């Protein structure tokens, strides 16, 4: 036996003409309090509207105030009263009223999810009955309450935050990219400058080398020219001598002619001893085709010079053989 | 819905600093991620605290009413928010006790009202007579 005073709800309950109605009133007021975006006046009016048939016979305001304070002991007392004195039909009608009040604005707040389920357990309403009742009243199925303690819930309900975060991250990345780009550009410019310098140096070197090479080539050509000239001169001398000799030989008997030069000329044309005039002409044509300086026109001057020297030798051999055989 | 405070071994009134250190030392990566997403941001923590308070109340109610194994109290909510039954007696019984106590007091008052009235009037009269005699004596002595 306690010596505490009667609590406000106990007084209301004692004054009430129907304790069940008063207890129901408190629980419905609790549901309404957990429906967030409405004012107290609206709550009060809505509660009066729903409980017009109740026979409690007292003011609604004290009950609303108690519900506003979420007085756990009062709610517990109301629950006990309901459980003790509620019939099956009455509990269904209370469920009905609670669902109507909780889903007036089309949504069911998280707290009311749990409160409705608590009421259903308290009044002995099975999950199937509750879901069918909910479907009938709202046209939607009663879903499981969303889990506010997970990140997924907030990703669904607070997408702006994540968008903002993503934007910030992107901006940061862009800034980093821009800095990296600037760095790269600077690097590239530096490299370009270096390359430019190196290229200039190379060009200078190449120019000097080219000059040197040109001078060397010039020298080589001159030398070759000189050689060729001297060879020509020697050969000319030779021919003159031979012609003299031949002239002498014509005078002399034929058996005394030295065969050495003839066999060498034949070797130059790729023939052996005893080739006739026709063979010599054919061999000369083939060799001239092979070794003509015009064939080496596209190649280096050196090659052309060598080819012309070879051709000269072949021509000389042919001329000599033609003279001797003719 | 899980009780993040209980899982982080914190009280629901923990300061942000305590919360930060608890999240930092948390070994469970999924819980850590959720706690960071929910509790580290003030407005989310407010929303969570509101639901948390309601669900804790419901858990306490259920434990007192014997509804901790009911059909609508399942899963992580039931795991985290079911409290052991405390020894608070039924509010209704308490009310009945209190009312009956008040009634006996009232009846006793009604029953002995005549006697008490007589005693009270006699007492008051005696007191008044004593006071009057005392005043008279004082005046005589003074004169």
Automatic annotation (TrEMBL), chain A:
The keyword Chaperone applies. It holds the Pfam family DnaJ. It comes from the Bacteria. Keywords: Chaperone. Residues 264-326 form the J domain. PROSITE patterns: DNAJ_2. The keyword Chaperone applies. Residues 165-261 are annotated as: Disordered. InterPro entries: DnaJ_domain, J_dom_sf. Residues 165-221, 242-261 have a biased composition (Basic and acidic residues). PANTHER family: J DOMAIN-CONTAINING PROTEIN, PUTATIVE, EXPRESSED-RELATED. This is J domain-containing protein. It comes from Vreelandella vilamensis.
From TrEMBL, chain B:
Keywords: Membrane, Transmembrane, Transmembrane helix. The chain crosses the membrane at residues 116-142. This is Uncharacterized protein. The lineage of its organism: Bacteria, Pseudomonadati, Pseudomonadota, Gammaproteobacteria, Oceanospirillales.
